[in-house]
Amino acid sequence: MSQPVEFYFDFSSPYGYLAATRISQVAGKYGRGVEWKPILLGAVFKVTGSGPLPSLPLKGPYSKRDMERSARFLGVPFKLPDPFPVSTQAPARAIYWLEQTKPERIEACVLALYRAYFVDGRNISSPDVTADMLASLGLDRSNALAAIAEPAIKERLRSVTDNAIERGVFGSPYIFVDGEPFWGSDRLDQVERWLRSGGF
Amino acid sequence: MSQPVEFYFDFSSPYGYLAATRISQVAGKYGRGVEWKPILLGAVFKVTGSGPLPSLPLKGPYSKRDMERSARFLGVPFKLPDPFPVSTQAPARAIYWLEQTKPERIEACVLALYRAYFVDGRNISSPDVTADMLASLGLDRSNALAAIAEPAIKERLRSVTDNAIERGVFGSPYIFVDGEPFWGSDRLDQVERWLRSGGF
């Protein structure tokens, strides 16, 4: 099997959520897996000088409308949560815990955490809420909570985020196909053609 | 015939160029015309605090790659010009001159000016180069040059740009379909569905 598609995302990113619902299917059509890489956009914004979409003049109000419309366009359930955005250390660390323990459960957990936030409005920034979600998928709640507070897991999230910035990642979702970078849920059509043709 | 699709763009915007090559066909399928509205993104960036894509950390290098790849994806000829970006008062004012004199020539002139810059690398920020382009399409060169320097035409460009900012326009291309805003050449699929369905 060829190199997996690398999928960088923040759990508080609506476009990350939209793309997450489709990336496995797109990659799978071409015999590829997905490497799920949650990062913290807050650290990225310190480098780019940007900020969360709702905070940006003119772009903020448009973005809210565009998120909702893009979800309808793709037929994906979506409700802008409140609070939005939130810090996403807890769910991101949970994924790096699974990376070390049950990597085969990562995708289901990513999608469940995203749905919890962007469909059910649950505040996944809370370690307890994140642990509840994992428990509802049959994972061990107290081990999850311990992992979220564990220095090695914290360090793993920090180093993946730092490495993402070094590779030029400035938003979410940010996808690499054999080293070629694609930013945004609206690049999935180009991602697909790249996978099919090996470049264009 | 229903209300035309409003197409706001800056002549120095690669994604504006890409969308300009397709918007008439998309609108025409649903019996709509296109209202071409060149604006000055520089004035917009003063409000948003943003800047031209190549100047942005991390986003700059990605954007150059994405512009070229998006052009190949769409099958549109494209070569990133040097200098880039340029100020676009001259070509924008030329379009508002045509608005008053030969509106039926606007579309051909927009596309010719865009091609001159993004395919042939001609510096359309120069009034002489813009006037040459219009002359090559059979328009009067000296009248074009005079119009580019005319206070009423300058004021028209300023007022369309100000009005665009009031309407929330923060980038190029920025398209309104019956009041619904769409930002970016990658929203043409949503524009098309909106035209077909009257919303979704």
Q: Describe the oligomeric state of these chains in a short phrase.
A: homodimer
Q: How are the strands ordered across the major sheet of chain A?
A: 2-1-3-4
Classify the helix fraction of chain A into a percent range: 40-55%
Low-confidence stretches of chain A: none
What is the residue-mean pLDDT of chain A, rounded to a whole number? 96
CA-CA gap between termini of chain A: 21 Å
Describe the largest sheet of chain A: 4 strands, mixed
Number of strands of chain A: 4
SS-based class of chain A: alpha+beta
Question: Number of helical segments of chain A?
Answer: 10
The chain pair forming the largest interface, with residue counts per chain, is: A-B, 31 and 31 residues
How would you describe the shape of chain A? globular
Task: Give the H and E element order of chain A.
Answer: EHHEHHHHHHHEEH
Q: Over the alpha carbons, how many angstroms does the gyration radius of chain A reach?
A: 16 Å
Content of β-strand of chain A: 5-15%
